[in-house]
Amino acid sequence: MRILIVEDEVMIREGLARLIKSHTGHTVIGEASNGQEGLSLALRFKPDLVITDIRMPVMDGLQMIEALHGMSLPIRAVILSGYSEFDYAKKAIHFGVDDYLLKPLAAEDIVDLLERTQRKMEAEEQKNAGTPGQCIKELIYGGPLSEEEGRRVRTICGFGAFVHFQLYLGYTGDAPIGYEEEIGGKFDQIRALLPSVQLHVSWDRGRRQFLGLAALPEDEDVSCLLCQAVERKIVRPYKQRDGRAVWAMVSIKGWESVQKGARDAELLIREALPVTEGDLVTRERMDAVDWKEFRFPADLGADMKNALCRGDLENARKTGEMFMEFMKDGPYREQEIRQAYLKATYLLLDTVREIDGDTYGQLQNADLLTRCTEAVTLRELEQSYGDGLSLVCSPHRVKEDISNYTIKRAINYIREHYQEGISLEEVAGKLGITPEYLSTLFNREMGENFSAFLRKFRISHAKRLLKGTDMKVYEIAETVGYTDPKYFARVFKDELGISPGDYRQMD
After folding, report:
1. Per CATH, the architecture of 132-287 is what?
2. Domain 2-127 adopts which CATH fold?
3. Largest distance between two CA atoms of the chain
4. Mean pLDDT across the stretch 420-438?
5. Which helix or strand (DSSP H or E) is residue 27 part of?
6. Does 402-505 carry CATH code 1.10.10.60?
7. CA–CA separation, 296 and 340 (whole Å)
8. How many CB atoms are closer than 10 A to CB 344?
9. Which of helix, strand or coil describes residue 464?
């Protein structure tokens, strides 16, 4: 299940998320501190389950559930309540609340509740077993079908001896409320227009995908008419809605090739990330794209680091926005765009980690790297990076005192020159202050001396190189500023308790 947690107490919210991640196979797709934030995340990510507190600022849990219920979203809800709130919580039954969790939370209670909820969902799916829509999902997402299973699916769907198919895959991750019902109605219209076509559609909430499988007579005209109808009635009308859904189509010959066709459609959707402009994605159209050569804008990356280390959040924000605009100036291939956003996100995390521990913790909770990896549309990539940018560049976290500003400048210099044999005296000279004053500032602002910070900074880079590259240990030592590999190994072991070689072997 995909789970959203809405709770205003940070310790409870984060503890519940950690417990779910460590004790179950379910996924926490978001965390919110009040009902309004929860509603926004629910509309964006469409979770299977919302676990929410009742009394929260801005919007309480019952108001949020009522809003979701009014939008007819098929989202299950679980209420967190204390004994004093239990009678009040019973009101939520009207809005389709599935269960309750009483505070204080116990691990076994949470695991048990999630298991019960999972069984309910599976029971509902079982009820729908034998319908064409369920058969389509079984065919596409299940393993290879036996001959008997294949005959059953063909019979239920009315595919008979058809051998020509068209598979339509629509990713609707960013679609507006009511989109699913609207699209279902459009497919009904297409069926009425083309009665010779056996067309069945299934909506998979977990994957946020429509699956449409059509069995066609051996008539090229009918095949073209179906494709045109889908593009005209379903795909293009939403071009003005900022490409909130992406649709792909593959032609399939032979029943045994349907599952492979579905994999091909998923690949098309992913490849089409840079060019989703409201047209139906096909292999022919993707092969015709004139891709541009991509080069990562290193100058923007350097500008971002420098701005953050100077505390110039306005320029940092503008630089991030310039990066996102640059990424639209393609088309560049999907893999290049995704890698660029991953690199930019990592740069953001790495820079903030050294200068603002509180904000770094918020960035980690936002799970930006995972969101970047799993994004299907360019909009989702932009949203992920933009959320990180908003967290980092929020005015409330600015410190105006000169000492913090000076330390940021010092850290920026370390970041650019850590591979060299820099010293406290050298950095102080570059900043125009005395070494004694810089040492005092470091101890006061960072809670450790200059040498300790520099050592940890170098070792952190060494750790990434050990895990992420095939470089030799002596090469890594030199790269992070140690001319003597033996001394590097000793420093590394002092910091982490294990040698560089042993660290590399760790899972």
Report:
1. 2-Layer Sandwich (3.30)
2. Rossmann fold (3.40.50)
3. 86
4. 85
5. strand 27-32
6. yes
7. 7
8. 24
9. helix
